[in-house]
Amino acid sequence: MNPNVNEAANGKTAAPTSLNDTAFYKSQLRVALRNCGIINPENIDEYIAVDGYQALGKVLTEMKPQEVIDVMKKSGLRGRGGGGFPTGMKWEFAAKNVSEQKYIVCNADEGDPGAFMDRSVLEGDPHAVLEAMAIAGYAIGANHGYIYVRAEYPVAVKRLEIAIGQARKYGLLGKDIFGTGFEFDIDIRLGAGAFVCGEEMALLTSIEGNRGEPRPKPPFPANKGLFGYPTIINNVETLANIPQIILKGADWFASMGTEKSKGTKVFALGGKITNTGLVEIPLGTTLRDIIYNIGGGIPGGKKFKAAQTGGPSGGCIPAQHLDTPIDYDNLTAIGSMMGSGGLIVMDEDNCMVDVARFFLEFTVDESCGKCTPCRIGTRRLLEMLEKITAGEATLEDIDKMEELCYHIKSNSLCALGQTAPNPVLSTLKYFRDEYEAHVVEKRCPAGVCKNLLSYEIQADKCKGCTACARACPVGAISGEVKSPHKIDKSKCIKCGACMATCKFGAIIKK
Predict the structure, then answer these.
(1) What is the pTM (predicted TM-score) of this model?
(2) CATH architecture designation of domain 23-254
(3) 349/224 Cα distance (integer angstroms)
């Protein structure tokens, strides 16, 4: 008898027979991550064994370049790097430009805090990216490509180098690929970790050997990109989908997702969540499904407060939008964005003003400084947030801060500055009461902002064990043994050591 059937008859839950049966994986659909963890990424034969390079062979021997572009357009694949621009349309723009030289660039400069989608694909399935770049090269008439990857990903860089060497040895990169006369090769360029180089024009400037700063658009890269030639820039996840679209067809890919957002999306799920890690779900899956079914909910029975999507460029999604289907347009409509796929979950213990300050601090540090709205505007914005978290601001400061956000968005040169105010605007929209509590009541509702905190000992719960007094580094706690203790607030440095030490829950944070 099947042991699982026997267990079910006894009222027990049958143990999962594979990873796909677990709660974490059962709602996922792996397309971009299909080979990660399945094949040896340093062995080209294993990639070939799972239909690797068949898509490249198909386009070179059976399809014309325009037919490849038409398939991409029909599939509905949109860029997974943040902007969500239709991939097939981008390819078509570059294909129509007549030029002696064209380039394909893979944007692997993954800089969002907590994001590691591209890294996982490069480390787990590098040949998929190489194959997709060659397909793109054939479609637009390019014979050379560059992978711009951050130097902080040494394993990814090593495996890309191995994969490129193997592909050249097998005749899958280089001249006369599959005996068709098509020529395409790829080089790697290392980034130094500048967040701004994730912006396509700054990335191209860096590949050219210059300081990574954005250039005004237009002209767009498809018209005038790397070294002044037409260039297509796609990020790692976008490229990872392409071989499967060619092999299985545009209709197969378009059958997943929503009307305007086709396929799947990889998210790096982190923060206050039980199950952290990479998740790949069909677009249109709700945030509730991701957090509670896949992510296992919030630890410690805490309440969900918000989720930050899109990293420093994105916005916070509050509990009222938990059932919103996640896709490009819906996220934009509620004040956030898809971004590259970071998804940070926050609970009731997070201060949303402090969250906005954290992301803006990152953006200020990463601004290239080329344009004044970003260089100066974001710094003034950060100063305003610091003033609020210190309890020194007024309601007028909140209005000025909101006005400054819109000036920065409308006047910055590139997407880094244009999206930098998003965390501030989204938290103002959904959590304005927290800002007002900081300003009017001089209180942080979540108990995070140090300058607005105070610790108190509840006399009815204090046992007089003296543990808190012994833990206090500045001698701010006094009292007799077996008698309630007190905190001298003039001496207290608000380090929280007393609260962490107390075993009776007698110390509260206000």
Answers:
(1) 0.89
(2) 3-Layer(aba) Sandwich (3.40)
(3) 48
